[in-house]
Write a sequence for this structure.
């Protein structure tokens, strides 16, 4: 098998599935805790990392929500976002769509404005100084109520120009897409694009994926690996040209595998599958590590690696002219 590590590292890439709060590295957690006079329940970075031994989605989420307790003021959200963008740019990520979870902060008494202003300021500065373009996606927490999601949607409206779309994350068990049908209908009416997590190997996974198509009308699906269990579902996703944002290293933590065989199967079916990092501070690996792990495990060809990146630019929520420009950049690199 060809060694494509260097090729992957140098390739201009897009990331479509990354939670900004999931990029909070232990080192930054300690720095922010100190700055904000907070005590952490770990003596060192090593001890904190050693506690990241989750084996399913709920055990990860517990650590994820606990970790973001160090984010209090606008500068914290700025530092978090800018650190991720520096890391992404160092891996030749030229475009990223970033999730944030406002309810996880407003429920701690932090204002919506504090959260989004810090993230937005980092996005603008990184675009100017690092040359990385980004767009922001607001996620609702599906283990909270639809009323709470609707409240977050209303809080977002003054910042509409800073947000490209809405998503749905957190614990999927007993929280199906249709629980949020009205919220997403309203989001659509406000001109937001729509995506939802359909996490891997959940109860009723394929039913949930069908709901995102038939009851919600999503523009993308986050994860969605279990669609492979249903041929008609695969056909529908393919016909609608929906991107699936799969996160192999993350999948390897919360299920029994990185699902790279499934990623390859989707490529072979011409489904618009992409590879992403999800929560790279917790599931160690940014874009390069995720692509390299996938290529090695599934023995992807160079053409398949390139296709994953084409899929990401084409499936992105960029205007057509920007997609064309990024695809041109990729073409030049490949040549
Ligand atoms: N799934 C659900 N909720 C999340 C995730 C995820 O992968 N990451 C952060 N919140
Ligand atoms: Zn995710």
């Amino acid at each position: 098998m060809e060694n494509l590590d260097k090729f992957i590292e140098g390739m201009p890439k897009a990331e479509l599935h990354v939670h900004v709060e999931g990029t909070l590295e232990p080192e930054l957690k300690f720095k922010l805790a100190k700055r904000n006079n907070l005590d952490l329940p770990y003596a060192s970075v090593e001890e904190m990392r050693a506690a990241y031994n989750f084996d399913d989605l709920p055990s990860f989420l517990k650590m994820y929500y606990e970790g973001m307790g160090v984010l209090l003021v606008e500068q914290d959200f700025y530092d978090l976002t800018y650190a991720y963008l520096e890391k992404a740019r160092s891996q030749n990520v030229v475009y990223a769509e970033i999730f944030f979870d406002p309810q996880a902060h407003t429920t701690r008494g932090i204002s919506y404005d504090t959260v989004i202003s810090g993230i937005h300021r980092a996005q603008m500065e990184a675009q100017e100084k690092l040359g990385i373009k980004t767009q922001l996606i607001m996620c609702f927490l599906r283990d909270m109520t639809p009323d709470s999601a609707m409240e977050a949607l209303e809080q977002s409206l003054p910042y509409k120009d800073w947000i490209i779309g809405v998503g749905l994350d957190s614990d999927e068990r007993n929280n199906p897409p249709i629980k949020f049908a009205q919220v997403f209908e309203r989001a659509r009416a406000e001109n937001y694009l729509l995506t939802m997590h359909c996490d891997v190997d959940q109860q009723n996974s394929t039913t949930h994926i069908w709901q995102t198509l038939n009851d919600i009308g999503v523009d993308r699906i986050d994860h969605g690996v279990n669609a492979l269990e249903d041929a008609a579902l695969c056909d529908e996703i393919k016909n609608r040209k929906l991107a699936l944002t799969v996160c192999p290293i993350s999948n390897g933590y919360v299920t029994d595998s990185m699902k790279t065989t499934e990623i390859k199967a989707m490529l072979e079916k011409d489904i618009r599958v992409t590879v992403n990092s999800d929560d790279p501070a917790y599931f160690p690996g940014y874009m390069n590590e995720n692509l390299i792990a996938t290529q090695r495990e599934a023995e992807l060809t160079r053409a398949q690696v390139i296709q994953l990146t084409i899929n990401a630019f084409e499936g992105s929520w960029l205007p057509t002219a920007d997609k064309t420009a990024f695809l041109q950049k990729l073409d030049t690199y490949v040549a």
The pocket of hypoxanthine (ligand 1) is lined by residues 19, 22, 57, 64, 169-170, 197, 199, 250, 278-279 (CB under 6 Å).
